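Ticket #4471: structure export looks truncated?
Reporter: QA, pipeline team
Priority: medium

Steps to reproduce: submit the single chain below to the structure queue and open the exported record.
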Amino acid sequence: MKNILWCLLLLAQQGLTQDLATDIKEEHIANASGSPYLFKDWMDGVVVFKSGRVMKQFKLRFDCARNRLMLQFEGNAFAAESQVKEFVLYTQSRKEKDSMIFRKGFPPVDKCGPDTYYQVLLGGKTVLLRLFTKVVVEEKQLVNTGSHRRLEDEEYYYLLQDGAMINLPRNKDDLVSKLPVQADGLKQFVAQQSLRMDKPEDFIKIISKYNELLQ
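Actual output as written to the record:
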């Protein structure tokens, strides 16, 4: 219990610092309809700290609008970022097939930095990452009634290769062009598998093949 209380104090302090850094984005998220969370309910999970400490006592919820991990302990919720290395969400049961692994510490790319959490979809010679985020969409209402803001889901895929992040487009031809060394083999594979690149399983298949071709 003493260790848990120490972590709560440390994480609460880190969370206050993190909130101050997101004030600008808060202005856009405020009053928008829709949930900022990947899943609305609190879930069981595992938190791994930079120190190597592993804790399973927290309930977890991922705020992907702010790319921020929320922790709950005995009814108290708070944000934690800087001391957390990775976390696991158990979406249904405490089994690997029903879990999602999120990790940070990857090279900067686009508007993302080393504190950005990505879902790790595939490891190996290259690493396939998935970024969950939310965007604020402003919709014009009827005359003299102003506008309405809502949160809309967006996701992006990246490949970590040789220390650099590669943005993977959803268009299969554009994606293959980002991996020119194995372009011919990947084109053939995409055609054989009828991949449409409209779901994470398609990205996993093509990058699994890419890792195989690199061997």
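Status: closed, not a bug. The export was complete when the record was re-opened. Leaving a note from the reviewer for reference: DSSP finds five helices and eleven strands in the chain.
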